[in-house]
């Protein structure tokens, strides 16, 4: 891609363990965000404001049977806490995603905050995860969730543009291409790939989108819990540009 702009960025991916206790999930997330911000300040020899990323469905178990129970309106309790912690720690924050209630429908929605605690972006997952592999996994987000229909992108201080997708969005190259063509140099995907799709596609898709668009890719998963009804693959990572 011509005229590539190189910007410095300090990024933390929080591979959070998610339980069925929403309040505990939120307390744990706030604690880990503060730890990431503290470590960034301790390790940094410059004044770069860090970007902290939470995983998909960080306040709720990931499962169609849970989305209605855990869903909130935005703004709501979870997003107010995200705004407050971003302001307190003076960070940019991608709040993973949460189940959102909106006009009688449910969405899988991510929010983004600046160091003043202002919401820069609300993005709802466009490509809902529907899969049925006999003997392995069946999961149909579309039975419960509605898809978003807007691109997700925001700009950090210094002019760095960042594109946002959620989980299965990474599977569709056109979305990443559109974000890259609009100037995004880093694409971030909170995502909860599972023990079937994770080993096969998680790393491969990150490398593919980095190569397609000559962009950096950051993918943030929940921690693996083999006792959960849905087991995340984990392996959060950042992919450099492949040339």
**Mean model confidence by pLDDT:** 93
Please count the beta strands (DSSP E, at least 2 residues each).
Answer: 13
Give the SSE string: EHEHHEEEEEEEEHEHEE
Helix content: 25-40%
- Low-confidence parts, pLDDT < 50 over ≥5 residues? 1-6
Strand content: 15-25%
Any idea what the shape is?
Answer: globular
**Number of helical segments with 4 or more residues:** 5
Largest sheet features: 6 strands, mixed
Structural class: alpha/beta
Report how far the terminal alpha carbons are from each other: 10 Å
Provide the gyration radius in Å. Answer: 17 Å
Account of the protein in words:
It is a single chain. The chain has 243 residues and is an alpha/beta fold. It is 28% helix and 24% strand. It is built from 5 helices and 13 strands. The chain has helices at residues 22-43, 64-70, 77-89, 173-181, 197-213, and strands spanning 11-13, 51-53, 92-94, 98-102, 105-113, 119-124, 130-133, 137-140, 152-155, 161-164, 186-190, 216-220, 237-239. The strands form 3 sheets. Strands 1, 2, 3, 4, 5 and 6 form a 6-stranded mixed β-sheet that branches. It has a 5-stranded mixed β-sheet with strand order 9-10-11-12-13, with helices on one face. Strand 4 and strand 5 form a beta hairpin. The longest helix is centred in the first third of the chain and has 22 residues, at 22-43. The radius of gyration is 17 Å and the shape is globular. 42% of the residues are buried. Mean pLDDT is 93; it is low at 1-6.
């Amino acid at each position: 891609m011509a005229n590539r702009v190189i910007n410095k960025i300090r990024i933390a991916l929080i591979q959070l363990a998610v339980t069925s206790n929403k309040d505990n999930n939120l307390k744990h997330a706030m604690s880990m965000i503060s730890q990431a911000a503290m470590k960034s300040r301790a390790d940094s020899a410059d004044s770069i404001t860090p970007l902290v990323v939470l995983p998909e469905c960080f306040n709720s178990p990931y499962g169609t049977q849970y989305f209605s129970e855990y869903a909130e309106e935005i703004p709501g309790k979870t997003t107010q806490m995200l705004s407050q912690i971003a302001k307190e720690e003076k960070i940019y924050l991608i709040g993973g995603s949460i189940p959102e209630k909106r006009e009688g429908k449910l969405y899988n929605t991510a929010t983004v905050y600046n160091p003043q605690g202002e919401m820069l972006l609300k993005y709802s997952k466009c490509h809902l995860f529907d899969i049925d592999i006999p003997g392995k996994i069946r999961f149909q987000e579309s039975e419960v969730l509605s898809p978003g229909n807007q691109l997700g992108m925001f700009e950090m201080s210094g002019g760095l543009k960042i594109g946002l997708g959620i989980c299965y969005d990474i599977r569709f190259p056109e979305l990443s291409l559109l974000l890259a063509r609009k100037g995004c140099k880093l694409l971030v995907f909170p995502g909860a790939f599972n023990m079937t799709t994770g080993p096969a596609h998680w790393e491969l898709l990150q490398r593919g989108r980095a190569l397609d668009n000559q962009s950096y890719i950051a993918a943030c998963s929940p921690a693996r819990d083999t006792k959960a009804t849905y087991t995340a693959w984990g392996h959060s990572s950042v992919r450099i540009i492949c040339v």
